Amino acid sequence: MNTFREDVERAGAYHGHICSGQCIGVKMARLGMRTLGLDPERDRKRIYVFVECDRCPADAIGIVTGTRIGRRTLRAMDYGKTAATFVDLETGNAVRVQRYQRRHPAQGEDLIAFYEAMPDEEMFKVQRVRVDLRPCDLPGKPVEVQYCAMCGEDITDSRQVVRDGRILCRACAGEAYYTLLD
User: Fold this and answer.
1) Helix (H) or strand (E) holding 84
2) Average pLDDT by consecutive 10-residue portion of the chain (182 residues)?
3) Separation between Cα atoms, residue 97 and residue 82, nearest integer Å
4) Which DSSP state fits 118?
5) What φ, ψ does residue 83 adopt, rounded to 5°?
6) What does pTM read for this prediction?
7) 98 CB-near residues (< 8 Å, 6+ apart)
């Protein structure tokens, strides 16, 4: 298993720099995996992670756990919280790890050494949780494909909206994050 410093350096290389967020994300991921009794190197196919922020810790969590959005093993839930839920796909056991103490090193202090020395219980709250994953949420090929009655685009894995008996994509149902210009 990698050392804390090695994981932070790998996360920093992926993220583009080493920062507090990388250290916190590495620490969260290692704690979540350890609490579930999983080894980050050996059990990568068993882990599914929900990250609750779209900031630095999310990249570090993905690096340590080996989860990826494109593999359908990492899901970003932008709640604006430094928290993540780790689900063991084999057992269904899940834990949510949330930072509850904001701690930062003093100016000039070794960032990695500071976070490595910080006891997990001083920095995080761990809660056992239940996550109900549907077959369409799991890794692998799409379980189903529907087509939007308005734009014709395909919609995979139960992400459609049904309005007045018609299958619509979220954009055509008025839930788009973008505005069409032409």
Assistant:
1) strand 83-88
2) 92 93 96 95 92 95 94 93 97 96 84 93 96 90 91 92 94 90 86
3) 9
4) S
5) -155, 155
6) 0.89
7) 81, 82, 83, 124, 125, 126, 127
